[in-house]
Specification:
With about 400 residues, the protein is α/β, with parallel strands linked by helices. About 45% of the residues lie in helices and about 15% in strands. It has 16 helices and 13 strands. The strands form two sheets. A seven-stranded parallel beta sheet has the order 3-2-1-4-5-6-7, with helices on both faces.
Length: about 400
């Protein structure tokens, strides 16, 4: 039982994020909402960024993180216990609205429960209905009151299905580290004069790290043995154990530096990248860094995903472009030898790097202008106020 009370003039919002990227979205959105609605009581599931923005956490998002289609089966009892706890909170807390961020397998069930109780549902960062599980579109049309998508082609899909949808730009557009942060990282790295910095990004989940990092490190070793020299930098995700990552790197014996709080500064210094499929690929693409996409999950999980996928490509930048702009090393194709070959093909061909940069720019040009979070926060505030029958107010509400 959650024992709270609603402020006389305050509003209440349940927010649920299940991934690290969702915590980033949720933290920024909640900060924007608090600026417009200072008395807003936000509760639910999130990580450090959402808590810093004022979330009253019922669970940490680490409780929801599961990687792979089959791997989720072992965690179903725990995930359903959390879902039932949130459904109970819908009754005891009676929020004015629910804000759900991606994580569709869980969040669409919660959206159904909220809709049944007459609670408005806003969804930020659409499930990948365009990639697979297109049957979810009917569920979304039934239970989501407002969908805010991150890619323009998603808007067209939802409009055709009659969903109230808006594309307000992608929040990664314009995100940059400060010059001071970049200078600090550059000073820490030092290294051989003229040797290009290569970003090594094995993913943000422990399961990704386990499957992908050893293969990338073995690939780096082969590249070094070929005679090509780089400054290899791994910006460890904040939810991962940096000491454990350093231990794995040390065991392999390759010159890869593990840096904390270095992701954005590295995007301004790196010249090439080895990047696990996910949000990081879009960030690297926006930075104009030529890179190779890598990914590996449990074999049956991958087979199922490929069997029911609607798209030819895996990396979002290739989906945006409608063609292969960056090479993809997926599943069995992710081997140390192929990592070596793909990276060296880029490193030794400046004309290929230039061609890839042009493709990256073309693919990311349609993602809108900076300020997507502010625009989204204004729309969500309007939804909350509409539920109370009050006119829009606050900065950026119109």
């Amino acid at each position: 039982m959650v024992c709270t009370f609603k402020l006389w003039n305050g509003m209440k919002l349940m927010i649920v994020a299940g991934e690290l990227s969702g915590d980033t979205h949720g933290g920024a959105l909640l900060a924007g909402l608090k600026a417009r609605l200072p008395e807003l009581d936000a509760f639910g599931i999130g990580g450090p960024r959402m808590r810093a923005a004022g979330l009253r956490a019922l669970y940490d998002l680490a409780e929801l993180q599961v990687h792979g289609l089959l791997e989720v089966l072992a965690h179903l009892p725990r995930l359903y216990r959390i879902l039932w706890r949130l459904e109970s909170a819908l009754d005891s807390e009676r929020p004015d609205a629910v804000l759900l961020i991606d994580y569709p397998g869980f969040n669409l069930k919660l959206a159904t429960a909220a809709k049944a109780r007459g609670i408005r549902v806003v969804y930020y960062s659409s499930p990948q209905i365009w990639a697979w599980r297109g049957g979810r579109l009917k569920t979304i049309a039934r239970v989501v009151d407002k969908m805010i998508v991150l890619f323009p082609f998603e808007r067209d899909l939802y409009e055709q299905a009659g969903v109230n949808v808006e594309f307000l730009g992608h929040p990664l557009v314009g995100e940059r580290a400060s010059s001071e942060e970049v200078a600090a990282l550059q000073a820490r790295l030092g290294g051989a004069e003229g040797a290009p910095i290569v970003a090594v990004m094995p993913g943000s989940r422990p399961s990704e790290l386990k499957r992908i990092l050893p293969l990338l490190l073995a690939g780096v070793r082969l590249i070094e043995q070929s005679g090509w020299q780089g400054r290899w930098v791994l910006p460890v995700a904040p939810n991962l154990d940096a000491a454990e990552v350093r231990r794995v790197v040390a065991e392999v014996g390759v010159p890869v530096r593990v840096e904390e709080r270095a992701f954005l500064p590295l995007l301004r210094l790196a010249r090439l990248g080895l990047v696990a499929s996910g949000t990081a690929t879009l960030q690297v693409a926006l930075a104009g860094i030529p890179f190779v996409v890598v990914y590996r999950v449990a074999p049956l999980s991958y087979w199922i995903a490929r069997r029911f996928a609607y798209v030819r490509h895996f990396a979002i930048v290739n989906i945006l472009a409608g063609r292969e702009v960056v090479p993809e090393l997926l599943q069995d194709a992710l081997t140390p030898q192929r990592v070596r070959d793909a990276l060296l093909a880029l490193a030794r061909q400046p004309e290929r790097q230039a061609e890839m940069r042009r493709g990256l720019l073309e693919a990311t040009n349609a993602l809108g202008s900076p300020g997507a979070y502010e625009r989204a926060a204004a729309r969500i505030a309007e939804t909350l106020q509409a539920g109370r029958g009050v006119p829009p107010a606050g900065p950026g509400a119109h």
